[in-house]
TrEMBL record:
The lineage of its organism: Bacteria, Pseudomonadati, Pseudomonadota, Alphaproteobacteria, Acetobacterales. It comes from Acetobacter tropicalis. Belongs to the polysaccharide deacetylase family. InterPro entries: Glyco_hydro/deAcase_b/a-brl (IPR011330), NODB_dom (IPR002509), PgdA-like (IPR037950). Transmembrane segments: none annotated. This is Chitooligosaccharide deacetylase. One of its GO terms (molecular function) is hydrolase activity, acting on carbon-nitrogen (but not peptide) bonds.
Length: 295
């Protein structure tokens, strides 16, 4: 409850200016950051560690390693696409074969915390989640350059830590349709932000668990939404950022939906489908060129 008008500062929550309208490579009209979040059982235990004893509930997350991820990788090989997989450190430790399979196929691994703990402001685990996540991925020879916050949340302490750790980009904020450079509270530049698109989060559309019941929408409804969003994004010259999960989109009906949508995207021929690192590097190149031109 707000006790005083002084409780909430009178300023925008994001101090970055408008996202620059840099051109996409090879004359493409729009871009798609194709990305997946690998949570496995941390999606359940991060809310309550006692859930680890509820084995049927945990099996929703376990599906990811047993079936979901292999099916997603198979689909990406079929379509000759590369994606970013934001991976919790816990998954890298508990299911090392998952990380190795992603790397073998040439995909990008991003940082997604260690145990998928919510990075609320002032949380005591923000630094340890970062450090342990880096350590777990390093055991596979990976030093990620991209970060997606667990539960998609962020705070100033986290943004500052990402810059300190030399991260290239974040993909958590939902406030734009193009990449932009974050501005920290002290006015200094932060990492590149690649905003994910809320409507492409399959968790909210296609998963119903015993302790998280929600409607499961049919393919026709979701495909209609995704196509309309993509078509308008193409008209804007903007970017789609997916938030897909192998424990959702790796299920039969959802995989068929994803295949159909990706084939539609490929048929458009004017969408650059790329990893987070590729898009962030392109942004940096354009940003540097714009600075040079301004000088």
């Amino acid at each position: 409850m707000i006790r005083s008008y002084d409780d909430v500062p009178v300023r925008p929550s994001n101090m970055a200016g408008p996202a620059p309208e840099f051109p996409w490579p090879d004359g493409k009209r729009a871009a798609m950051m194709l990305s997946f979040d690998i949570d496995a059982e941390t999606a359940m235990t991060s809310k309550d560690p006692a859930h680890a004893e509820k084995l049927v509930y945990m099996s929703y997350g376990g599906y990811e390693a047993r079936v979901g991820l292999p099916k997603i990788l198979e689909l990406l090989r079929e379509l000759n696409l590369k994606a970013t997989f934001f991976t919790t450190g816990w998954v890298a430790d508990a299911y090392p074969a998952m990380v190795e399979a992603v790397l073998k196929d040439g995909h990008e691994i991003g940082h997604h915390g260690y145990h998928h703990l919510l990075p609320d402001p002032g949380s005591p685990h923000i630094e340890s989640e970062l450090a342990k996540g880096f350590e777990a991925l390093a055991r596979h020879g990976v030093r990620p350059v991209g970060y997606r916050a667990p539960y998609g949340e962020s705070c100033e302490e986290l943004r500052t830590a990402l810059k300190r750790e030399g991260m290239l980009y974040s993909s958590s904020w939902r406030d734009d349709v193009r990449p932009y450079r974050q501005v920290l509270s002290d006015g200094s530049p932060g990492v590149v932000e690649l905003p994910p698109t809320a409507g492409y989060d399959d968790w909210t559309l296609g998963l119903s668990t015993r302790f998280g019941p929600r409607p499961v929408f049919p393919k026709e409804h979701i495909l209609s939404m995704w196509k309309d969003d993509l078509d308008e994004t193409r008209a804007w010259g903007a970017m789609v950022g997916t938030v897909l999960h192998p424990l959702v989109s790796g299920r039969p009906m959802r995989l068929r939906l994803l295949r159909t949508f990706l084939l539609y995207t490929l048929e458009c021929r004017d969408v650059w489908i790329a990893t987070g690192e590729q898009i962030a590097r392109h942004f940096e190149t354009c940003e540097a060129a714009a600075r040079g031109g301004a000088a």
